Amino acid sequence: MSYIELTTPCIFGVESILKKEIIKLGYEIKRVEDGRITYIADELGVCRSNIWLRTAERVMINVGEFTATSFEELFDKTKDLPWERWIPQDGKFWVKKASSIKSKLFSPSDIQSIIKKAIVERLKKTYHVNWFNEDGEHYPIRVFIKKDRVSICLDTSGEALHKRGYRTFTSKAPISETLAAGIIQLSPWNKDRILVDPFCGSGTIPIEAAMIAMNMAPGLNREFTAEKWKNIIPVKSWFKAVDEANDVIDTTCELNIAGYDIDYKVLKLARENVRNAGVEDKIHFQERDMRKTSNNKKYGFIITNPPYGERLGDKETVIELYKDMKITFDKNLEDWSYFIITAFDEFERYFGKNADKKRKLYTGMMKANLYQYFGSKPPKRVNPIN
Fold first, then answer.
1. CA nearest to 57, candidates 3, 16, 7
2. What's the superkingdom here (predicted)?
3. With CB atoms 3.0 to 4.6 Å apart as the test, which of 49, 81, 137, 296 could cross-link to 59 if both were Cys?
4. CB atoms < 10 A from the CB of 156, how many?
5. Does the pTM of the predicted model rise above 0.85?
6. Which of the residue ranges 120-134, 156-170, 250-264, 340-354 would you say has the lowest mean pLDDT?
């Protein structure tokens, strides 16, 4: 095993949760930035990170970092990197995405072209060839430039990690799996407490909550690009990471998780997604208007992503909905906590109460806020005296 520097981008606002997830895996954090974390792992760490990280968007190997303010400098410094360590002679490699923020080099297509040429020149000398067939495994490259600082990475994940593999069916404007997992982990909810999503849609929040409670790794039902990189990661490392994840799943835990939605067609999708995720016996779905949300037990949690009027003409409907939410929750949910994410800027005004805590997040490319209302804590259990 050798040390590998990994970078994981994430949704803005969940960096603290992702940091905890990486530390829990046993790896050393090198740097935390807005929307990304860099840490030190090994070959097995690539496998574990892809399988376990709930709030990371992808796992990337850091090939190199440097400052570049001209295309000539970009070419030369890219060429100096040890590409032969990562890409075999028959590897198919290309710059899948290049992004630039506040930098002198800002043309994505030019950045992609120059980096590709620099890698080719480096590998031509290493492998003593003038032409690459590129008929082997795929090695997608991602480039991020911020304030002239260039980061070049190999994407080990392939499809983004929010694509767990269970959500083959979605409702309109669904919350992403990574964001749902982040919101749940930002709350004090645990598997001993009730959780209700009254706007559950295709079931993402209840499913992610059940997977967290069962200690089920989110990446067990999908594949990753780096599984085929035998020159970097031994196949046995993937087998080991999968076996580890399967060994710690708790299928016996009893959960009280419910998802409600007014649209019975959407609930059909949710039930299919739950079956795909392997948590169908842990979640109860019901066709129910939010205004009929009720529970006679105390200290539960509402964690939800309600409609926020993204289309013209929806604002009045959403305003009335938010007013009714507060009335319903106060009347029917004693001592409950609410965690509500919405991109509607005036949510607190119409909900009728300022949040105890507010956190800025992003749903897709849209800025949103997580409004956190803390209910009473349940009394501590007293152990009986024998």
1. 7
2. Bacteria
3. 49
4. 24
5. yes
6. 156-170
